[in-house]
Specification:
disordered C terminus, 11 helices, single chain, 18% strand, Spore Coat Polysaccharide Biosynthesis Protein SpsA, Chain A, 8-stranded mixed sheet, globular, alpha/beta, 45% helix
Length: 235
């Protein structure tokens, strides 16, 4: 009989008052099973932390930036396995059983396949390519709910605290430990940013930024380019 494992779900948030209850409610069965949920808020002025507090085990206030926030959550987490969950992403019902299988494996880290919430066929195509690319390259993005053994996370020093591409950069280092454990039952990610900015525009932006990152451009300049493109799309 295998030993039980402990899970810490770390949710970085910023101004999520309108959605934080919906984000945390599906995680309550995990808490009931003895696992923990940690919300890391970057000082949201809209009351996100207050809404989250009754629905998680701990609220941590940190500096702003997803990598900074995820590292802050990991620093206080008690679980053997750390799972980093975006506020607009929902775990499948099978998540705990799947993660228990991972805990018995020799892999150091892993991620879920992803599905997008939009009903247009283009979103199914986008998700298929995201999952296929991830399986071929061993690189995952934050939308895929990355998880990692605490010992591996600490040995690698956690996320590099950069304003963009922290998930890609960490994946590159994690690949030196093992190939990712891939869970086919997908997480569901809100497609609103794809819908707001346009699916094709968003695809081209992401690939362009990733290409510039692989060529050695700094995450700081890429973050500036990302913010500029998003502002232009909303005008």
């Amino acid at each position: 009989m295998s030993e039980p494992f402990s899970l810490s779900v770390i949710v970085p948030v910023w101004q999520e008052a309108g959605a934080i209850v919906e984000t945390l409610q599906p995680l309550q069965p995990l808490r009931g099973a003895g696992h923990e949920v940690i919300v890391v808020d970057a000082g949201s002025p809209d009351g996100t932390a207050e809404l989250a507090r009754p629905r998680c085990d701990r609220v941590v206030v940190s500096g702003k930036g997803r990598a900074v926030q995820m590292n802050a959550g990991a620093a206080v987490a008690r679980g053997d396995v750390l799972l980093f969950l975006h506020a607009d992403t929902r775990l499948p019902e099978s998540a705990l059983a799947e993660l228990e299988q991972f805990s018995r494996s020799r892999c150091g880290w892993g991620r879920f396949d992803v599905a997008l919430s939009g009903r247009r066929p283009i979103f199914q195509v986008i998700a298929w390519f995201m999952n296929r690319r991830s399986r071929l390259t061993g690189i995952c993005t934050g939308d895929q709910a990355m998880f990692v053994r605490r010992t591996v996370f600490e040995a690698l020093g956690g996320f590099r605290e950069i304003p963009l591409m922290e998930d890609v950069e960490f994946s590159r280092r994690l690949r030196l430990v093992s190939r990712p454990w891939c869970i086919a039952d997908p997480v569901l990610t809100d497609s609103r940013r794809w819908e707001q900015n346009g699916p094709w525009r968003t695809i081209l932006l992401m690939w362009r930024l990733r290409w510039r990152y692989w060529r050695g451009e700094s995450p700081e300049s890429l973050a500036q380019a990302y913010r500029s493109d998003v502002r232009n799309a909303s005008e």
